[in-house]
Specification:
The protein is of the alpha/beta class and 491 residues long. The protein has 2 domains: 375 residues, ANL, N-terminal domain (Rossmann fold, 3-Layer(aba) Sandwich), CATH 3.40.50; 89 residues, ANL, C-terminal domain (GMP Synthetase, Chain A, domain 3). Helices cover 31% and strands 26% of the residues. The protein is globular and about 65 Å long. The N and C termini lie far apart (53 Å). The structure holds malonyl-coenzyme A and adenosine monophosphate.
Length: 491
Protein backbone atom coordinates (compact mmCIF):
# COMPACT_ATOMS: atom_id res chain seq x y z
CA UNK A 1 0.00 0.00 0.00
CA UNK A 2 1.36 3.42 -0.91
CA UNK A 3 1.30 6.14 1.71
CA UNK A 4 -0.68 8.34 -0.65
CA UNK A 5 -3.59 5.92 -0.74
CA UNK A 6 -3.71 6.14 3.07
CA UNK A 7 -3.36 9.92 3.05
CA UNK A 8 -6.21 10.22 0.56
CA UNK A 9 -8.63 9.26 3.31
CA UNK A 10 -7.80 12.71 4.67
CA UNK A 11 -6.50 14.75 1.73
CA UNK A 12 -9.42 13.85 -0.52
CA UNK A 13 -11.98 12.31 1.83
CA UNK A 14 -11.82 15.17 4.33
CA UNK A 15 -11.14 17.90 1.79
CA UNK A 16 -13.05 20.70 3.55
CA UNK A 17 -12.17 19.74 7.09
CA UNK A 18 -9.80 21.89 9.19
CA UNK A 19 -6.46 20.06 9.33
CA UNK A 20 -3.63 22.24 10.52
CA UNK A 21 -2.92 25.35 12.50
CA UNK A 22 0.57 26.83 12.45
CA UNK A 23 1.85 29.94 14.18
CA UNK A 24 4.68 31.64 12.32
CA UNK A 25 7.64 33.28 14.06
CA UNK A 26 5.65 36.49 14.61
CA UNK A 27 2.89 34.50 16.35
CA UNK A 28 0.36 34.95 13.53
CA UNK A 29 -1.64 31.77 13.17
CA UNK A 30 -2.56 30.26 9.79
CA UNK A 31 -5.03 27.46 9.27
CA UNK A 32 -5.37 24.94 6.46
CA UNK A 33 -7.95 22.33 5.48
CA UNK A 34 -6.88 18.94 4.17
CA UNK A 35 -7.89 20.23 0.74
CA UNK A 36 -5.48 23.16 1.15
CA UNK A 37 -2.71 20.70 1.97
CA UNK A 38 -3.57 18.62 -1.08
CA UNK A 39 -3.30 21.72 -3.28
CA UNK A 40 -0.17 23.05 -1.60
CA UNK A 41 1.68 19.74 -1.87
CA UNK A 42 0.67 19.45 -5.52
CA UNK A 43 2.14 22.90 -6.13
CA UNK A 44 5.31 21.91 -4.28
CA UNK A 45 5.55 18.76 -6.41
CA UNK A 46 5.38 20.94 -9.54
CA UNK A 47 8.06 23.29 -8.19
CA UNK A 48 10.41 20.44 -7.24
CA UNK A 49 9.89 18.70 -10.59
CA UNK A 50 10.60 21.97 -12.41
CA UNK A 51 13.86 22.16 -10.48
CA UNK A 52 14.82 18.74 -11.79
CA UNK A 53 13.94 16.56 -8.79
CA UNK A 54 12.89 13.08 -9.98
CA UNK A 55 11.74 9.84 -8.34
CA UNK A 56 14.51 8.22 -6.32
CA UNK A 57 16.41 11.48 -5.81
CA UNK A 58 17.39 12.32 -2.29
CA UNK A 59 16.25 15.75 -1.16
CA UNK A 60 17.49 16.99 2.22
CA UNK A 61 15.84 19.54 4.47
CA UNK A 62 17.19 21.40 7.45
CA UNK A 63 14.24 23.36 8.78
CA UNK A 64 12.50 24.25 12.01
CA UNK A 65 8.90 23.02 12.22
CA UNK A 66 6.78 24.95 9.71
CA UNK A 67 4.14 24.27 7.05
CA UNK A 68 6.80 23.86 4.37
CA UNK A 69 8.01 20.64 6.01
CA UNK A 70 4.52 19.18 5.68
CA UNK A 71 4.25 20.38 2.08
CA UNK A 72 7.67 18.94 1.30
CA UNK A 73 6.81 15.59 2.88
CA UNK A 74 3.53 15.12 1.02
CA UNK A 75 5.11 16.34 -2.22
CA UNK A 76 7.98 13.87 -1.76
CA UNK A 77 5.49 11.03 -1.28
CA UNK A 78 3.73 12.12 -4.48
CA UNK A 79 7.00 12.29 -6.46
CA UNK A 80 8.54 9.16 -4.89
CA UNK A 81 11.46 11.30 -3.74
CA UNK A 82 13.54 10.30 -0.70
CA UNK A 83 13.62 13.00 1.97
CA UNK A 84 16.70 13.36 4.17
CA UNK A 85 15.92 15.24 7.40
CA UNK A 86 18.85 17.11 8.96
CA UNK A 87 18.74 18.15 12.63
CA UNK A 88 18.78 21.97 12.75
CA UNK A 89 21.36 21.81 15.55
CA UNK A 90 23.90 19.98 13.39
CA UNK A 91 27.12 21.79 12.46
CA UNK A 92 29.60 21.50 9.62
CA UNK A 93 31.08 18.09 10.42
CA UNK A 94 27.72 16.39 10.99
CA UNK A 95 26.15 18.04 7.94
CA UNK A 96 29.19 17.22 5.78
CA UNK A 97 28.86 13.54 6.58
CA UNK A 98 25.13 13.34 5.81
CA UNK A 99 25.38 15.34 2.60
CA UNK A 100 28.44 13.37 1.46
CA UNK A 101 26.73 10.05 2.12
CA UNK A 102 23.18 10.78 0.91
CA UNK A 103 24.28 12.86 -2.10
CA UNK A 104 21.03 14.83 -2.12
CA UNK A 105 19.91 16.71 -5.20
CA UNK A 106 19.63 19.79 -2.92
CA UNK A 107 19.09 20.87 0.68
CA UNK A 108 16.00 22.92 1.47
CA UNK A 109 16.77 25.35 4.27
CA UNK A 110 16.23 28.84 5.61
CA UNK A 111 17.99 31.86 4.10
CA UNK A 112 20.31 32.25 7.10
CA UNK A 113 21.63 28.68 6.68
CA UNK A 114 22.26 28.63 2.92
CA UNK A 115 26.03 28.89 3.40
CA UNK A 116 26.12 25.88 5.76
CA UNK A 117 25.85 23.31 2.96
CA UNK A 118 28.94 23.54 0.79
CA UNK A 119 29.12 21.23 -2.22
CA UNK A 120 25.37 20.83 -2.66
CA UNK A 121 22.72 23.23 -3.96
CA UNK A 122 20.98 24.91 -1.00
CA UNK A 123 17.45 26.07 -1.79
CA UNK A 124 15.82 28.87 0.17
CA UNK A 125 12.56 27.57 1.59
CA UNK A 126 10.88 30.99 1.32
CA UNK A 127 11.73 31.12 -2.36
CA UNK A 128 10.28 27.64 -2.91
CA UNK A 129 7.17 28.65 -1.00
CA UNK A 130 6.78 31.73 -3.22
CA UNK A 131 7.21 29.60 -6.34
CA UNK A 132 4.64 27.13 -5.03
CA UNK A 133 2.10 29.88 -4.44
CA UNK A 134 2.19 30.54 -8.20
CA UNK A 135 2.41 26.90 -9.35
CA UNK A 136 -0.41 24.67 -10.71
CA UNK A 137 -2.35 22.71 -8.10
CA UNK A 138 -3.37 19.66 -10.12
CA UNK A 139 -1.98 16.44 -8.67
CA UNK A 140 1.31 15.32 -10.09
CA UNK A 141 1.97 11.84 -8.79
CA UNK A 142 4.51 9.14 -9.57
CA UNK A 143 3.60 5.49 -9.01
CA UNK A 144 4.83 4.18 -5.71
CA UNK A 145 4.07 1.34 -3.35
CA UNK A 146 4.99 0.01 0.07
CA UNK A 147 8.54 -0.80 -1.05
CA UNK A 148 9.28 2.74 -2.28
CA UNK A 149 11.84 4.49 -0.05
CA UNK A 150 10.54 7.80 1.27
CA UNK A 151 13.08 8.85 3.89
CA UNK A 152 16.73 8.42 4.68
CA UNK A 153 17.05 9.19 8.37
CA UNK A 154 20.53 9.38 9.87
CA UNK A 155 21.21 7.82 13.21
CA UNK A 156 24.60 7.48 14.87
CA UNK A 157 25.96 3.97 14.90
CA UNK A 158 28.19 2.54 17.59
CA UNK A 159 31.12 3.57 15.43
CA UNK A 160 30.20 7.23 15.84
CA UNK A 161 29.57 7.57 12.11
CA UNK A 162 25.94 8.33 11.34
CA UNK A 163 24.23 5.76 9.10
CA UNK A 164 21.18 6.48 6.98
CA UNK A 165 18.25 4.17 7.69
CA UNK A 166 16.31 3.63 4.45
CA UNK A 167 12.65 3.87 5.46
CA UNK A 168 9.96 2.93 2.97
CA UNK A 169 6.39 4.11 2.51
CA UNK A 170 5.33 0.72 3.87
CA UNK A 171 7.37 1.27 7.05
CA UNK A 172 5.65 4.59 7.76
CA UNK A 173 2.24 3.23 6.79
CA UNK A 174 2.56 0.15 9.02
CA UNK A 175 3.82 2.27 11.91
CA UNK A 176 0.98 4.78 11.58
CA UNK A 177 -1.68 2.07 11.31
CA UNK A 178 -0.29 0.27 14.37
CA UNK A 179 -0.27 3.48 16.43
CA UNK A 180 -3.61 4.85 15.27
CA UNK A 181 -5.21 1.51 16.12
CA UNK A 182 -3.43 0.93 19.42
CA UNK A 183 -3.83 4.46 20.73
CA UNK A 184 -7.32 4.82 19.16
CA UNK A 185 -6.48 8.07 17.39
CA UNK A 186 -9.51 9.34 15.50
CA UNK A 187 -10.52 12.36 13.45
CA UNK A 188 -11.89 13.86 16.67
CA UNK A 189 -8.40 14.17 18.19
CA UNK A 190 -6.43 17.40 18.44
CA UNK A 191 -2.69 16.77 18.33
CA UNK A 192 -0.24 19.34 19.68
CA UNK A 193 2.96 18.84 17.64
CA UNK A 194 6.03 20.20 19.40
CA UNK A 195 8.55 17.48 18.54
CA UNK A 196 11.05 18.35 15.82
CA UNK A 197 10.02 17.08 12.39
CA UNK A 198 13.60 16.06 11.58
CA UNK A 199 13.40 12.90 13.73
CA UNK A 200 11.08 9.90 13.48
CA UNK A 201 9.24 10.63 16.72
CA UNK A 202 7.79 13.86 15.31
CA UNK A 203 7.76 12.89 11.63
CA UNK A 204 7.04 9.17 11.71
CA UNK A 205 4.60 9.12 14.63
CA UNK A 206 3.20 12.65 14.82
CA UNK A 207 2.74 13.64 11.19
CA UNK A 208 1.73 10.17 10.01
CA UNK A 209 -0.83 9.58 12.78
CA UNK A 210 -2.29 12.99 11.99
CA UNK A 211 -2.56 12.39 8.23
CA UNK A 212 -3.78 8.82 8.57
CA UNK A 213 -6.41 9.55 11.26
CA UNK A 214 -7.47 12.87 9.75
CA UNK A 215 -7.34 14.57 13.13
CA UNK A 216 -6.45 18.22 13.74
CA UNK A 217 -2.86 19.29 14.37
CA UNK A 218 -1.34 22.42 15.79
CA UNK A 219 2.30 22.65 14.77
CA UNK A 220 4.71 24.80 16.79
CA UNK A 221 8.19 25.75 15.65
CA UNK A 222 9.84 23.91 18.54
CA UNK A 223 9.11 22.94 22.13
CA UNK A 224 9.66 25.94 24.41
CA UNK A 225 8.99 25.07 28.00
CA UNK A 226 7.97 28.57 29.03
CA UNK A 227 5.28 28.65 26.32
CA UNK A 228 4.08 25.04 26.44
CA UNK A 229 1.46 25.51 29.16
CA UNK A 230 -0.05 28.41 27.21
CA UNK A 231 -0.28 26.24 24.08
CA UNK A 232 -2.13 23.52 25.99
CA UNK A 233 -4.56 26.07 27.41
CA UNK A 234 -5.11 27.90 24.16
CA UNK A 235 -5.33 24.96 21.75
CA UNK A 236 -6.94 22.40 24.09
CA UNK A 237 -5.30 19.35 22.53
CA UNK A 238 -6.44 15.81 23.25
CA UNK A 239 -3.15 14.21 22.19
CA UNK A 240 0.51 14.99 22.90
CA UNK A 241 3.69 13.08 22.02
CA UNK A 242 6.87 14.07 23.86
CA UNK A 243 10.29 13.04 25.07
CA UNK A 244 10.79 12.68 28.86
CA UNK A 245 12.52 16.10 29.09
CA UNK A 246 9.28 17.73 27.93
CA UNK A 247 7.32 15.97 30.67
CA UNK A 248 9.90 17.04 33.27
CA UNK A 249 9.45 20.60 32.05
CA UNK A 250 5.65 20.33 32.17
CA UNK A 251 5.84 19.32 35.84
CA UNK A 252 6.59 23.00 36.54
CA UNK A 253 2.94 23.79 35.64
CA UNK A 254 0.95 25.06 38.65
CA UNK A 255 -1.46 22.35 39.92
CA UNK A 256 -4.73 24.15 39.07
CA UNK A 257 -3.65 24.85 35.48
CA UNK A 258 -2.25 21.32 35.10
CA UNK A 259 -5.52 19.85 36.34
CA UNK A 260 -7.54 21.90 33.83
CA UNK A 261 -5.23 20.83 30.97
CA UNK A 262 -5.46 17.20 32.05
CA UNK A 263 -9.25 17.35 32.13
CA UNK A 264 -9.35 18.17 28.41
CA UNK A 265 -6.57 15.78 27.33
CA UNK A 266 -7.06 12.20 26.20
CA UNK A 267 -3.53 10.82 25.88
CA UNK A 268 0.07 11.78 26.68
CA UNK A 269 2.70 9.53 25.04
CA UNK A 270 6.41 9.44 25.92
CA UNK A 271 9.34 7.88 24.10
CA UNK A 272 12.84 8.24 22.61
CA UNK A 273 14.47 7.97 26.05
CA UNK A 274 13.62 6.31 29.37
CA UNK A 275 10.79 7.95 31.32
CA UNK A 276 11.75 7.83 35.01
CA UNK A 277 9.03 6.19 37.14
CA UNK A 278 8.99 9.19 39.49
CA UNK A 279 8.24 11.53 36.56
CA UNK A 280 5.35 9.27 35.49
CA UNK A 281 4.01 9.32 39.06
CA UNK A 282 4.44 13.07 39.62
CA UNK A 283 2.82 13.75 36.25
CA UNK A 284 -0.15 11.50 37.08
CA UNK A 285 -0.64 13.38 40.32
CA UNK A 286 -0.45 16.79 38.69
CA UNK A 287 -2.22 16.23 35.36
CA UNK A 288 -4.44 13.26 36.24
CA UNK A 289 -2.98 11.16 33.38
CA UNK A 290 -0.69 8.15 33.40
CA UNK A 291 1.75 8.85 30.55
CA UNK A 292 1.77 6.04 28.01
CA UNK A 293 5.40 5.00 27.36
CA UNK A 294 6.43 3.28 24.16
CA UNK A 295 9.72 2.20 22.57
CA UNK A 296 11.07 2.71 19.08
CA UNK A 297 14.13 3.52 17.01
CA UNK A 298 14.87 5.36 13.81
CA UNK A 299 15.55 2.08 12.01
CA UNK A 300 12.35 0.37 13.15
CA UNK A 301 9.93 3.16 13.95
CA UNK A 302 7.78 1.92 16.87
CA UNK A 303 8.10 -1.58 18.30
CA UNK A 304 6.57 -1.82 21.74
CA UNK A 305 3.92 0.19 23.61
CA UNK A 306 2.06 0.25 26.86
CA UNK A 307 -1.65 -0.33 26.28
CA UNK A 308 -4.23 2.42 25.93
CA UNK A 309 -6.70 0.40 27.96
CA UNK A 310 -5.16 -1.70 30.71
CA UNK A 311 -2.11 -1.24 32.86
CA UNK A 312 0.48 1.36 31.80
CA UNK A 313 3.26 -0.05 33.89
CA UNK A 314 5.87 2.44 35.12
CA UNK A 315 9.42 1.69 34.00
CA UNK A 316 8.26 -0.67 31.24
CA UNK A 317 7.63 -0.02 27.56
CA UNK A 318 4.73 -2.46 27.42
CA UNK A 319 3.87 -5.07 24.81
CA UNK A 320 4.85 -5.55 21.14
CA UNK A 321 2.74 -3.45 18.77
CA UNK A 322 0.44 -5.17 16.25
CA UNK A 323 2.46 -6.58 13.31
CA UNK A 324 5.77 -6.34 15.23
CA UNK A 325 7.46 -9.39 16.71
CA UNK A 326 10.05 -9.05 19.48
CA UNK A 327 12.51 -11.68 20.65
CA UNK A 328 14.94 -11.32 23.55
CA UNK A 329 18.13 -13.28 22.88
CA UNK A 330 21.43 -13.90 24.60
CA UNK A 331 24.86 -13.48 22.99
CA UNK A 332 24.63 -16.92 21.37
CA UNK A 333 21.28 -16.10 19.79
CA UNK A 334 19.20 -18.24 22.19
CA UNK A 335 15.97 -16.90 23.67
CA UNK A 336 16.39 -15.93 27.32
CA UNK A 337 13.92 -16.97 30.03
CA UNK A 338 11.37 -14.46 31.37
CA UNK A 339 13.11 -12.03 33.69
CA UNK A 340 16.56 -12.62 32.15
CA UNK A 341 18.28 -9.83 30.27
CA UNK A 342 19.02 -10.18 26.56
CA UNK A 343 19.13 -8.11 23.38
CA UNK A 344 15.85 -7.15 21.71
CA UNK A 345 15.54 -8.38 18.13
CA UNK A 346 12.55 -7.14 16.17
CA UNK A 347 10.80 -8.03 12.94
CA UNK A 348 7.84 -6.46 11.17
CA UNK A 349 6.66 -4.20 8.34
CA UNK A 350 7.84 -1.22 10.40
CA UNK A 351 11.53 -2.23 10.18
CA UNK A 352 13.69 -0.39 7.64
CA UNK A 353 15.28 -1.98 4.58
CA UNK A 354 18.83 -1.41 5.80
CA UNK A 355 21.45 1.33 5.77
CA UNK A 356 22.18 3.54 2.79
CA UNK A 357 25.49 2.64 1.12
CA UNK A 358 26.42 0.40 4.06
CA UNK A 359 26.01 -3.29 3.14
CA UNK A 360 28.43 -4.16 5.96
CA UNK A 361 26.36 -2.40 8.62
CA UNK A 362 23.14 -3.80 7.14
CA UNK A 363 24.53 -7.34 7.19
CA UNK A 364 25.65 -6.89 10.81
CA UNK A 365 22.27 -5.56 11.93
CA UNK A 366 19.97 -8.09 10.23
CA UNK A 367 19.99 -11.81 10.96
CA UNK A 368 17.48 -13.97 9.06
CA UNK A 369 15.03 -11.10 8.74
CA UNK A 370 15.37 -9.97 12.35
CA UNK A 371 16.82 -6.57 13.24
CA UNK A 372 19.21 -6.44 16.18
CA UNK A 373 18.29 -3.29 18.11
CA UNK A 374 21.33 -3.17 20.39
CA UNK A 375 18.90 -2.47 23.26
CA UNK A 376 18.90 -4.79 26.25
CA UNK A 377 15.73 -5.76 28.05
CA UNK A 378 13.70 -8.30 29.97
CA UNK A 379 10.21 -9.68 29.51
CA UNK A 380 7.89 -10.32 32.45
CA UNK A 381 5.77 -13.51 32.44
CA UNK A 382 2.76 -11.39 31.38
CA UNK A 383 4.68 -10.03 28.38
CA UNK A 384 5.57 -6.51 29.53
CA UNK A 385 9.05 -5.51 28.34
CA UNK A 386 11.46 -3.45 30.41
CA UNK A 387 14.52 -1.87 28.78
CA UNK A 388 17.70 -2.40 30.78
CA UNK A 389 20.23 -0.34 28.87
CA UNK A 390 22.09 -0.78 25.62
CA UNK A 391 24.89 -2.86 24.20
CA UNK A 392 26.64 0.35 23.16
CA UNK A 393 27.39 3.39 25.31
CA UNK A 394 24.84 5.63 23.62
CA UNK A 395 23.93 8.74 25.63
CA UNK A 396 20.43 10.23 25.22
CA UNK A 397 20.18 13.92 26.21
CA UNK A 398 16.73 15.46 25.95
CA UNK A 399 15.80 12.73 23.45
CA UNK A 400 18.74 13.50 21.15
CA UNK A 401 21.25 10.66 20.70
CA UNK A 402 24.95 11.12 21.34
CA UNK A 403 27.65 8.57 20.59
CA UNK A 404 30.64 9.21 22.88
CA UNK A 405 33.03 7.99 20.21
CA UNK A 406 32.11 10.83 17.86
CA UNK A 407 32.94 13.44 20.53
CA UNK A 408 36.09 11.56 21.59
CA UNK A 409 37.31 11.57 18.00
CA UNK A 410 36.91 15.35 17.73
CA UNK A 411 38.49 15.91 21.17
CA UNK A 412 41.67 14.03 20.26
CA UNK A 413 42.21 16.27 17.23
CA UNK A 414 42.44 19.34 19.51
CA UNK A 415 45.75 20.85 20.70
CA UNK A 416 47.10 19.30 23.89
CA UNK A 417 44.51 16.50 24.09
CA UNK A 418 46.18 13.07 23.92
CA UNK A 419 43.29 10.90 25.06
CA UNK A 420 39.62 11.47 25.73
CA UNK A 421 36.71 9.55 27.17
CA UNK A 422 33.12 10.78 27.15
CA UNK A 423 30.46 9.38 29.47
CA UNK A 424 26.81 10.10 30.18
CA UNK A 425 26.00 11.53 33.59
CA UNK A 426 22.46 11.54 35.01
CA UNK A 427 20.65 14.87 34.71
CA UNK A 428 17.21 15.52 36.21
CA UNK A 429 15.90 17.44 33.19
CA UNK A 430 17.70 16.08 30.15
CA UNK A 431 17.97 12.47 31.39
CA UNK A 432 21.69 12.31 30.68
CA UNK A 433 24.34 14.82 29.66
CA UNK A 434 27.84 14.13 28.30
CA UNK A 435 30.97 14.78 30.38
CA UNK A 436 34.51 14.58 28.95
CA UNK A 437 37.62 13.25 30.66
CA UNK A 438 40.83 14.45 29.07
CA UNK A 439 44.46 13.42 29.27
CA UNK A 440 47.09 15.81 27.90
CA UNK A 441 49.30 18.81 28.46
CA UNK A 442 48.25 22.41 29.01
CA UNK A 443 44.63 21.74 28.09
CA UNK A 444 42.55 24.91 27.94
CA UNK A 445 39.01 23.71 28.73
CA UNK A 446 37.41 26.90 27.40
CA UNK A 447 39.23 26.55 24.08
CA UNK A 448 38.28 22.87 23.89
CA UNK A 449 34.63 23.73 24.50
CA UNK A 450 34.70 26.51 21.89
CA UNK A 451 36.23 24.15 19.32
CA UNK A 452 33.55 21.55 19.99
CA UNK A 453 30.74 24.10 19.74
CA UNK A 454 32.09 24.97 16.33
CA UNK A 455 32.05 21.39 15.08
CA UNK A 456 29.19 19.62 16.85
CA UNK A 457 25.52 20.14 17.69
CA UNK A 458 25.17 22.00 21.00
CA UNK A 459 23.56 19.02 22.79
CA UNK A 460 26.75 16.99 22.14
CA UNK A 461 29.08 19.52 23.81
CA UNK A 462 30.10 18.04 27.20
CA UNK A 463 28.68 19.78 30.26
CA UNK A 464 32.07 19.46 32.00
CA UNK A 465 35.69 18.80 31.03
CA UNK A 466 37.71 16.93 33.63
CA UNK A 467 41.49 16.62 33.26
CA UNK A 468 42.90 13.33 34.55
CA UNK A 469 46.44 11.90 34.56
CA UNK A 470 45.41 8.73 32.77
CA UNK A 471 42.27 6.88 31.69
CA UNK A 472 41.62 3.67 33.65
CA UNK A 473 42.10 0.77 31.24
CA UNK A 474 41.81 -3.01 31.27
CA UNK A 475 44.84 -5.18 30.59
CA UNK A 476 43.68 -5.21 26.96
CA UNK A 477 43.67 -1.41 26.86
CA UNK A 478 39.88 -0.86 26.87
CA UNK A 479 38.85 2.25 28.78
CA UNK A 480 36.90 1.39 31.94
CA UNK A 481 34.53 4.30 31.90
CA UNK A 482 32.79 3.25 35.11
CA UNK A 483 36.05 3.82 37.02
CA UNK A 484 36.38 7.47 35.99
CA UNK A 485 36.02 9.91 38.94
CA UNK A 486 32.47 11.12 39.58
CA UNK A 487 31.73 14.71 38.68
CA UNK A 488 29.29 17.06 40.40
CA UNK A 489 27.33 19.00 37.82
CA UNK A 490 25.22 21.09 40.21
CA UNK A 491 25.44 24.70 39.20
C1 LIG B 1 16.57 22.06 21.29
N1 LIG B 1 17.27 23.13 20.89
C2 LIG B 1 16.78 23.53 19.72
C3 LIG B 1 15.74 22.65 19.40
N2 LIG B 1 15.64 21.75 20.40
N3 LIG B 1 17.12 24.51 18.91
C4 LIG B 1 16.43 24.66 17.76
N4 LIG B 1 15.42 23.85 17.41
C5 LIG B 1 15.06 22.84 18.18
N5 LIG B 1 14.07 22.04 17.80
C6 LIG B 1 18.42 23.69 21.61
C7 LIG B 1 18.17 24.96 22.33
O1 LIG B 1 18.35 26.06 21.49
C8 LIG B 1 19.24 24.90 23.41
O2 LIG B 1 20.49 25.17 22.81
C9 LIG B 1 19.20 23.46 23.82
O3 LIG B 1 18.77 22.76 22.63
C10 LIG B 1 18.30 23.14 25.00
O4 LIG B 1 17.06 23.74 24.75
P1 LIG B 1 16.02 24.18 25.87
O5 LIG B 1 15.13 25.21 25.30
O6 LIG B 1 16.68 24.40 27.19
O7 LIG B 1 15.15 22.92 25.87
P2 LIG B 1 14.71 21.89 26.94
O8 LIG B 1 13.59 22.44 27.75
O9 LIG B 1 15.89 21.30 27.65
O10 LIG B 1 14.10 20.81 25.96
C11 LIG B 1 14.86 20.28 24.93
C12 LIG B 1 13.94 19.54 23.97
C13 LIG B 1 14.81 18.95 22.87
C14 LIG B 1 13.16 18.47 24.72
C15 LIG B 1 12.93 20.52 23.38
O11 LIG B 1 15.80 18.16 23.49
C16 LIG B 1 14.03 18.17 21.89
O12 LIG B 1 13.31 18.69 21.04
N6 LIG B 1 14.12 16.84 21.95
C17 LIG B 1 13.41 15.94 21.05
C18 LIG B 1 14.37 15.07 20.34
C19 LIG B 1 13.65 14.05 19.48
O13 LIG B 1 12.69 14.30 18.79
N7 LIG B 1 14.14 12.81 19.54
C20 LIG B 1 13.52 11.73 18.83
C21 LIG B 1 14.60 10.92 18.11
S1 LIG B 1 13.83 9.55 17.31
P3 LIG B 1 21.82 25.60 23.59
O14 LIG B 1 22.76 26.03 22.51
O15 LIG B 1 21.36 26.68 24.51
O16 LIG B 1 22.28 24.36 24.30
C22 LIG B 1 13.97 8.29 18.44
C23 LIG B 1 13.15 7.09 18.18
C24 LIG B 1 12.03 7.07 19.16
O17 LIG B 1 14.61 8.42 19.41
O18 LIG B 1 11.84 6.07 19.87
O19 LIG B 1 11.34 8.08 19.23
P1 LIG C 1 17.31 6.85 17.66
O1 LIG C 1 18.53 6.20 17.14
O2 LIG C 1 17.42 8.33 17.81
O3 LIG C 1 16.16 6.44 16.90
O4 LIG C 1 17.10 6.34 19.14
C1 LIG C 1 16.61 5.06 19.41
C2 LIG C 1 16.98 4.63 20.78
O5 LIG C 1 16.27 5.40 21.76
C3 LIG C 1 16.56 3.21 21.07
O6 LIG C 1 17.49 2.28 20.53
C4 LIG C 1 16.51 3.19 22.58
O7 LIG C 1 17.81 2.98 23.10
C5 LIG C 1 16.06 4.59 22.90
N1 LIG C 1 14.64 4.64 23.28
C6 LIG C 1 13.55 4.88 22.53
N2 LIG C 1 12.42 4.82 23.27
C7 LIG C 1 12.80 4.53 24.53
C8 LIG C 1 12.11 4.34 25.77
N3 LIG C 1 10.79 4.46 25.88
N4 LIG C 1 12.87 4.05 26.86
C9 LIG C 1 14.20 3.93 26.80
N5 LIG C 1 14.90 4.12 25.66
C10 LIG C 1 14.22 4.41 24.54
Amino acid sequence: MSLLSLYDLSLVGRHDVAALEVADASGVSRTFTFGDLEARSNAWAHVLAARGVVAGDRLAFCLPNRTAVIDLWIAAVKLAVILVPINVLYRGREIGHIVGDAQPRAVVTTADRLADFPGVPAWDVDLLEAEASAAPVDRRATRSDASTPVALVYTSGTTGVAKGAVLTQGNFAANALALVTTWEITAADRYLAALPLFHVHGLGNGVQCWLVSGCHMRLVERFEHDKAVGWFEDYAPTLFFGVPTMYVRLLETPPDRAGAIGARMRLFVSGSAPLPAQVLEAFAERFGHVILERYGMTETLMNVSNPLVGERRAGTVGLPLPMTAVRILDESGTAVADGETGELWVRGPNVCDGYWNRPDATAAAFVEGWFRTGDLGTRAPDGYITLQGRRSDLIIAGGFNIYPREIEEVLTTLPGVREAAVVGVADPVRGEVPVAYLVGDGIDAAAVEAALRDQLASFKVPRAFVCVDALPRTALGKVQKHLLPAVDLRR
